Give the backbone structure.
Amino acid sequence: MRRRLLLTGAGSAATSNLIRSLRAGHRALTIVGCHSDRFLLKKSSADRNYLVPALSHSDYLAALRRVIARERIELLIPTTDAEVRAFTRPRARLASRVFLPRQRIVDLCQDKYRLNVALRARRVPAPLTFPVTSLRSLEAIFERLPARMPVWCRVRSGSGSTGAIPVRTPAQARSWISYWTEMRGVPAASFILSEYLPGRDFSCQAIWKAGELVAVKTCERLSYFGGGGNPSGTSSISQLAKTVFAPDVVAVCTDAVRAIDPRASGAFNFDLRESSHGVPCITEINAGRFPSGTNIFDLTGRVNLAATFVRVALDEPVAVREAYDPAEGYYSVRDLDTLTGVFHADELFDKIVDAR
C-alpha cells in the first residue's frame, strides 16, 4: 500500500535531504511538496508540487486543506520550527495526520531559556544560563557565570545559531546586542547569556511515540558550514560530521524528553556540547522536525529514522531490535549546491589517488 505524504518547504535543502532519506527507506511513498516560494519550489524533488501562500497569510491553511484533499494526503510533515508551531495550534485542524509533540512541548523547546530552566530544574545537564533583561543587567549576569571563561551570547529563539557569539566582557556583549537591536530590530530582552561549553559538539535525533523511545542515533559535528565566516566560529549546520557511539549523549537526551513530557510523541533533534568536565549538556531541542542534515541519521546503520518516523506516525509495524543504532564510522560532508555526501571511513579514499 502506497503512503501519501505532504512535505512543506519543498525545494529547500532540508526538505530535499528529507525526501532523499524517505525514498531510501520506504519504497511505497508518494511525496507531495509545497512552498510559498516558486523559485525554490522549482527545485523540488517531490512527485508533485504546489505553490501555496506564505505561512503568515490568512489563506495558508485553506490552501493546505485543498492540497490535502486533492492528493489524499495521509501524513503532513513540517520542516521548519514556524510550521511545527503553527500545526500544533487548535485552529490548524487538517484532514491528514501530523505526528508532532504537543503544543506545550513545542512552545517550551522553541524558547531556549525556558527549556534550559526546565531541564536544570529536573537535573538534566544544561549550561548555566541567564536572561538579559536590559543592557544594564549584563555586569550582574557576568558575575554569576564562571570567571576566566568566555560567555555564550545568543538569541533565545530561532535556529541556525541566530545572534550567537562568544564574548569575554560585558562591553563586548553590550556592543553585540546593541548592534542586533539597532540593525535587526531584536530587543535586548531576546538574548540569553550562558556558560561556555568547550567540549565536543553532538547532534542526536530520536523518534518517540506515547512516551516510548522508538529509535535514536548520534553524530558529532567536526566542522561547520560557513563557520569560518560567522562571529561565533560555529553553526548548527555541520560541514563535516561523523556518526559516533555516545551512550552518554543518548542517556541525557532520553532523560530530557522524559523530564518535559512523559507521553512524548514525534521527532526530537538535540544539540549538545560537552562541559569542561566532559559532560554532554543540552543547548537546545528542536521538537517536531528533522535537522537539515538528516541524511547522516537515515542513510547509515540498520535504521532509517525518517522512514521509521513515517511508519510510526501511520501506525505501521516497526521492527527495531534496539532503540540505539550507533552506526559508527560514517561521515557526512555538506557544501553549497552539492548533494550531501555520506561515506563510510573505508570508502573515503575510493577513486582518490594520494599525490602528496
Notes: The mean pLDDT is 94. The radius of gyration is 21 Å. The domain at 128-195 is CATH 3.30.1490.20 (Dna Ligase; domain 1).
